Amino acid sequence: MSPVFASVVFDVDSTLTGIEGVDWLAALRDAETAAYVKGLTERVMAGELPIEAAYVSRLARIAPTRDELRRLADAYRAAASPGAREVIATLQNAGVRVVAISGGIAAAVVPFCVWLGFAERDVHAVPVEWNGRGEYAGMDPATPLATQTGKATVVRALGLPHPILAVGDGSTDVEMKRQGAVEAFAAYTGFTHRKAVVAAADFVVETFADLMPRLLAPRA
Ligand SMILES: [Mg+2]
Fold this sequence. Notes:
It contains 10 helices and 10 strands. It is an alpha/beta fold. The chain has one domain (2-217): Rossmann fold (3-Layer(aba) Sandwich), CATH 3.40.50. A hairpin with a 5-residue loop joins strand 5 (128-130) and strand 6. Helix 4 (66-78) packs parallel to helix 6 (106-116). The longest helix has 15 residues, at 31-45. It is globular, with a radius of gyration of 17 Å.
């Protein structure tokens, strides 16, 4: 089999795992906070609200502790997408560069993605800081991943081999294609099905088994 794309960029939340991390963290708080955060997340992912408008306030409202991020990493693993590990290993064995680019929090996203098989240097997410008691002390205000077009910025900075396919479920994933950072975008609908995202996709997959034949073609 020969690779169709030289690099594949995966979204994490609601793509490699069924969990939307920020919603999971918000659900640890009171019902009002959970509903507020979930509403913002849905509007961002549907492309109705730029992520910049939501990211900092959403996280400050939740103020996740370091221990809660450890628990989120476990929850990510428990909800890992069926077949994702196999796809990642197969791509790596075929010489394809696989990277994970996430608007989620690095302390949970990195251990989960390393467990899935990604090289640690190929996992990019939002750094968050805690004080000595493990209480939330803010996020890196300079990270491009808290912005609408940040995933495209990160892809360009990595200098990945082309052609590149991006796989994801949200509006920030679509931006990688819209900004010209990747050649193709696949909408992953295994967990969520967003009209604007599906409409912008080159193709749509519901499972990782469906994705495989799009990534590796029989040798001519
Ligand atoms: Mg996602």
